[in-house]
Amino acid sequence: MLDKVRKLLAKAEDPACTREEAEALTAKAAELIAKYGIDQAVLAAAEAAGRPQVVGNRLVELEPPYLREKAHLLHVVAGSLRCRSVRLERRGADGLRVSMHLFGLESDVDGVELLFASLLVQAARALLAEGVPDGEQPAAWRRSWLVGFAAAVAQRFAEADRRSREAGPDLPGVALVLADRRRAVDLAVEEAYPRLTRGRARRLTGGGYAAGQEAGQRADLGGARVGAGGRPAVSGARARSGRG
Q1: Quick one: which of 15, 30, 179, 215 could link to 126 by a disulfide (CB 3.0–4.6 Å)?
Q2: What is the DSSP string of 38-64?
């Protein structure tokens, strides 16, 4: 299902695609996401209650255009849903390719992929509806728009986490379980990428950041349970070794 959604979005973002075709493709992607259900991961987690869960990992190949901006959005979602992500880049004959290596409990990783796919659909539809202002370079404006969109999503997760903490103290048992999970996820990342480094921040020239922020404030986050975390850096984490 996720693969179908990604292919539909990739077609919709093709410069050769007309506005009407792009709207039809993003509408179909949204229909598939709604049919599958963002809360599927929550149901799976409830069914798995009482059974031991291990840290898993999954490689997500991103589709152009705006690869690094999409990687940043996935980084935001992963960090907000108790997972970690590592950005892998490689250049080949077909140009730059970017993938994200996700680490977390299987139910959490499922939730990350589903919410990320939904947000891509929403961002694509919002960009189509808004259009690029006169005088702006389209690619630069859309890149900054996507970064603003991700920033708003990160802020909303952080605010939801703050409200949940203010509503009442965490039960000690729950806090210990979450701490153990974080340590297990961190250990899995360190074992896979012992030479991990943080990527450099990028300078964006487009003027779409504020518009993207507004769209991100309106985005449907699917009622996903949020974890602790603030606003991640735009660059995210990146592997230094030759893994990608």
Answers
A1: 215
A2: TTHHHHHHHHTTTS---EEEEEEEPPS
**Contact at 8 Å (CB) between 192 and 101?**
yes
Diameter over CA atoms, the chain: 58
What are the respective helix, strand and coil percentages of the chain, to the nearest 5?
55, 15, 30
The length of the chain, given as a count of residues = 244
Q: What is the dihedral of CA 158, 164, 169, 175, to 10 degrees?
A: -60
User: What is the distance, to the nearest Å, from the Cα of residue 66 to the centroid of all Cα atoms in its chain?
Assistant: 13
State the 10-residue block means of pLDDT for the chain, 244 residues long.
Answer: 79 85 83 61 52 82 94 95 93 89 90 91 92 92 96 90 64 64 91 88 88 93 47 39 34
- pLDDT for the residue numbered 194: 94
What is the spatial distance between Cα 123 and Cα 142, in angstroms, rounded to a whole number? 10
Alpha helix (H) residue ranges in 131-242: 138-167, 172-192, 209-218
CB 103 within 8 A of CB 57: yes
C-alpha span between 42 and 47 (Å, rounded): 9
Q: What is the 3-state secondary structure (H, E, C) of 180-211?
A: HHHHHHHHHHHHHCCCEEECCCCCCCCCCHHH
Question: Coil, strand or helix: which one is 102?
Answer: strand
Backbone φ/ψ region at 209: left (φ over 0), alpha (ψ -120 to 50), beta: alpha
73 torsion bin: left (phi>0), alpha (psi -120 to 50), beta (else): alpha
Question: Is 6 within 8 Å of 117 (Cβ atoms)?
Answer: yes
